[in-house]
Amino acid sequence: MAFQRPLQLLTCFTLLFSRIKLGNGAATARPYSARMADSVMLRGQAIHDDSSDSSGLLQVGTFQTALLDLVESPSAQYLEQDWESFLSRSADSVVGLVDNATQDTQFPLDRLSVGKGLLYQYERTGNETYKDALDALRLSIDLQPRNQYGGLWYYVYPNWSYLDGMFSLLSFLPLYTSAFSPSNSSSTTDSVLYQLDLLWTHCHDNATDLLFHGYDASKTAVWADPVTGASPYVWIRALGWFMMGLVDFLELHLTELEGRLGIWHGRFISLSNALLDTVDEGSGAWWQVLNAPGREGNYIESSGSAMFVYTLLKGVRLGLLEDTVKNNYTTVAERAYQTLVERFVDENEDGTLSYNGTVGVCSLNSTASYEYYVNQPLVYDSVLGSAAFIRASIEHELYKA
Ligand SMILES: *[C@@H]1O[C@H](CO)[C@@H](O)[C@H](O)[C@H]1NC(C)=O
Ligand SMILES: *[C@@H]1O[C@H](CO)[C@@H](O)[C@H](O)[C@H]1NC(C)=O
Ligand SMILES: *[C@@H]1O[C@H](CO)[C@@H](O)[C@H](O)[C@H]1NC(C)=O
Ligand SMILES: *[C@@H]1O[C@H](CO)[C@@H](O)[C@H](O)[C@H]1NC(C)=O
Ligand SMILES: *[C@@H]1O[C@H](CO)[C@@H](O)[C@H](O)[C@H]1NC(C)=O
Ligand SMILES: *[C@@H]1O[C@H](CO)[C@@H](O)[C@H](O)[C@H]1NC(C)=O
Ligand SMILES: *[C@@H]1O[C@H](CO)[C@@H](O)[C@H](O)[C@H]1NC(C)=O
Ligand SMILES: *[C@@H]1O[C@H](CO)[C@@H](O)[C@H](O)[C@H]1NC(C)=O
User: What is the reported pTM?
Assistant: First the structure.
């Protein structure tokens, strides 16, 4: 980790202290997953406020997803913050914002990511306010505009579909269906796979075997490929959201990986292999613009790299990926994880952790040029990065256990 604060001694002391305090004699330091989750809660992040931050809902949703994973994992015992009351505050900060399906369609698809925390709160309290918001989110998918192929618009831009939105769709729709209308589960699977198929068809990059950021079905955007409508660059976090959503979705179907699900299992392997091919040999992690490795201005990005570590380790743990001598996913993920810790995790004097190196928003409402992607500002302690790091850490801790 990078000791960027002045009082390194104190930081070392804090480390030692946490080792003694929580190790109970077993020399176990508090794991990064729990420490980073506590740090996000102590910073008061992942609570939606009135700011015009366009990723506000996604910050809430992605952190709640990481936190709920964490409480199910062995690392949960190391959490120090009162995560249940935090989750309740976090859910309450969005429940009134998403309870109108018509209005929901004015938010990016990212809005759906908050459904997981709302469902948790509903099941815990039975309070119908949460159920109303869940129903509104569900209905908002049916109201969401679609392009000529039936692809969901990501946001207000006519006929544009992005990889990014799939994390939220995949994390919400199957969950909602299994909770409230299990008889709809096969039609839910079909409609989700249909969205994935459209993105694969339009965004597949034959040069890298990865997927471009998104496509414009009308092919009129300045960046649109005249044949496919795709944007020209493979943006790390768009693919990161897509891969995380895909591995979480396949986890729900491990015993039925045939037919269309089998095809998507195959595509998951193909994307994972392509990630091994594009990993930066020098650092062991991945570039902000994946199809321009080493190009001037390009850099190793911390949120997308964490999403890939999560995806690869979880893929192996679930048996979706199998290490071979040629494609050793765990070796690559392990090295990438060490790079994340060394380069991007900062120890603060108060014992909290910070996370650096996460790019802010990259929108297709832009030139979508190489210069655009590499000049978007980094955001220190972005929840989009730290939540991804928590999920990567959970998988890493399971792998090491
Ligand atoms: C249900 O939850 C909402 C949102 O937190 C809250 O405003 C309301 O008071 C709760 N209702 C009950 C009966 O607890
Ligand atoms: C939901 O939002 C729409 C559009 O803003 C508005 O017309 C409608 O009255 C709202 N519905 C409720 C129940 O508030
Ligand atoms: C979006 O697609 C629809 C259906 O194909 C088409 O009628 C409309 O003109 C498109 N909108 C734009 C802005 O290209
Ligand atoms: C169940 O599926 C049908 C057909 O796709 C759809 O119209 C309906 O809204 C779904 N119900 C729920 C609760 O998701
Ligand atoms: C990629 O290859 C597929 C199948 O070979 C082809 O249909 C598609 O048009 C190609 N895409 C591009 C952007 O060249
Ligand atoms: C993959 O790497 C791990 C260590 O990172 C090693 O234990 C394992 O044997 C390797 N698997 C194969 C098939 O080479
Ligand atoms: C975060 O990383 C950037 C790029 O390496 C560096 O310039 C900056 O000083 C770091 N920020 C902090 C607060 O450490
Ligand atoms: C899209 O970009 C244009 C030009 O920068 C800007 O005026 C507009 O507000 C953006 N749209 C959204 C929804 O942010």
Answer: 0.93
